[in-house]
């Protein structure tokens, strides 16, 4: 079989399930914007179908969808250069996901740590959608034949599953149709941790708002959350090795490093020896300096929801030019009459 050449194309998404937070910004948004400037077609999605795998109040969901769209643009994404839309408006995502539900194996899904984390002790009562989430995610990516997916470290396992689904589809049907996608995990902060617990990632679905810095937080809220962030009683070390076994200290230093663009050793050369009482206000000032222009721009954009909706609807039309032919060809390969 000849090896198919796929157009270099980036796909990634963010859920409108809560507040956009610093982890989304450093692990995802900021890198989405960087990739837009490189040699890729870039497709970015507000994944509302993923959000409803856990209960969402409809009015809140509408509001959060617009908020995430505003967050993308306020972080520097250009909706003329990239394709930006909400997932439900491009029906091929859900249609291909069904095919993938029939390719993926239940055993594969049972190994997914995100399902275990989110379903918790009461897995019997979780939605079927939460269990099938990774299959929809594989479809989000593969319905564009995306070759590269920038994500935070927490999504690594889902990306591996996406590769497994593509490989099994190609093998079962004897084609070389879906690409084996590359995860792009990296940047200065691929895993920002909770401010309350250095062993948990910062997350939009954490019950405690004090665990995260939201892009919508004002200056006082940011300062307060950093001041109250969990730490240990030691002073900061002057070298990176001194952060081992100190997850909370390491997290705050890494956040400082990612926001400032300095590497961890450079940061520690500046702040090593300081107590947290002295370091936290410096970190809070930097966070406010970097995030408040984004917050202000988000507010400005959200004052005109019709314009946001227009941008997403234009993005969805452009997205369907890519997804419709890929879905049609998938149906043909699978043997569906009329495709
Ligand atoms: P939820 O907890 O409901 O899953 P979330 O906070 O993980 O929400 P998502 O919409 O699931 O947010 O993730 C969007 C993107 O942000 C993904 O690429 C994910 O890997 C990245 N991301 C999420 N949290 C972090 C984090 N703490 N550090 C770095 N990247 C993150
Ligand atoms: Mg997540």
Which structural traits does this protein have?
339 residues; mainly alpha; three-stranded parallel beta sheet; two-stranded parallel ribbon; 13 helices; 5 strands; 53% helix; 6% strand; globular; binds adenosine-5'-triphosphate; binds magnesium ion
Arithmetic mean pLDDT: 96
Tell me the major beta sheet.
3 strands, parallel
Determine Rg (CA atoms, Å): 21 Å
Q: pLDDT under 50 segments (min length 5)?
A: none
> What class do helices, strands and sheet pairing give?
mainly alpha
Number of strands: 5
Q: Spell out the helices and strands N to C.
A: EHEHHEHHHHEHEHHHHH
The outline comes out as: globular
Question: What ions, cofactors and ligands are bound?
Answer: adenosine-5'-triphosphate, magnesium ion
Order of strands, widest sheet: 1-2-3
- The percentage of residues in β strands lies in 5-15%
Oligomerization status of the protein chains: single chain
Give helix % range.
40-55%
Number of helices: 13
Terminal CA distance reads 24 Å
Question: Can you walk through the features of this model?
Answer:
Strand 4 (148-150), helix 8 and strand 5 form a beta-alpha-beta unit. This protein has helices at residues 22-36, 48-51, 58-74, 92-101, 106-110, 113-119, 128-142, 156-173, 219-227, 247-260, 264-271, 276-302, 305-334, and strands at residues 9-14, 41-46, 83-86, 148-150, 182-184. The strands form 2 sheets. A 3-stranded parallel beta sheet has the order 1-2-3. Strands 4-5 form a two-stranded parallel ribbon. The chain is built from 13 helices and 5 strands. The mean pLDDT is 96. The protein starts with 8 loop residues before the first strand and ends in a 5-residue tail after the last helix. 53% of the residues lie in helices and 6% in strands. It is globular. Residues 14-15, 17, 23-24, 27-28, 151-152, 154-155, 190-192, 201-205 line the site of adenosine-5'-triphosphate (ATP).
């Amino acid at each position: 079989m000849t090896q198919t050449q796929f157009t270099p194309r980036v796909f990634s998404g963010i859920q409108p399930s809560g507040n956009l937070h610093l982890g989304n910004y450093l692990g995802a948004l900021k890198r989405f914007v960087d990739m837009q400037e490189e040699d890729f077609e870039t497709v970015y999605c507000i994944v509302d179908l993923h959000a409803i795998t856990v209960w969402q109040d409809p009015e809140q969901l509408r509001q959060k969808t617009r908020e995430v769209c505003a967050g993308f643009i306020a972080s520097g994404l250009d909706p003329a250069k990239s394709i930006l839309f909400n997932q439900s408006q491009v029906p091929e995502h859900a249609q291909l996901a069904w095919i993938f539900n029939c390719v993926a194996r239940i055993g594969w899904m049972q190994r997914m740590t995100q399902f275990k984390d989110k379903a918790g002790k009461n897995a019997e009562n979780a939605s079927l959608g939460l269990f099938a989430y990774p299959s929809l995610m594989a479809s989000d990516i593969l319905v564009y034949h995306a070759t590269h997916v920038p994500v935070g470290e927490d999504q690594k396992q889902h990306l591996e599953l996406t590769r497994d689904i593509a490989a099994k589809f190609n093998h079962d049907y004897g084609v070389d149709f879906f690409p084996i996608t590359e995860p792009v995990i990296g940047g200065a902060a691929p895993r920002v941790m909770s401010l309350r617990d250095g062993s948990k990632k910062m997350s939009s679905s954490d019950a405690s708002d004090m665990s995260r810095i939201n892009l919508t937080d004002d200056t006082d809220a940011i300062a307060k959350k950093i001041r109250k962030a969990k730490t240990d009683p030691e002073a900061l070390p002057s070298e990176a090795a001194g952060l081992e076994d100190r997850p909370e200290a390491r997290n705050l230093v890494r956040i400082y490093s990612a926001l400032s663009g300095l590497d961890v050793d450079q940061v520690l050369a500046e702040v090593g020896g300081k107590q947290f009482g002295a370091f936290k206000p410096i970190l809070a000032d930097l966070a406010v300096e970097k995030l408040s222009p984004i917050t202000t721009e988000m507010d400005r954009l959200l004052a005109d929801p019709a314009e946001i909706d227009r941008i997403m609807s234009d993005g969805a039309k452009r997205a369907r030019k890519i997804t419709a032919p890929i879905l049609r060809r998938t149906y043909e390969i699978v043997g569906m009459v009329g495709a």
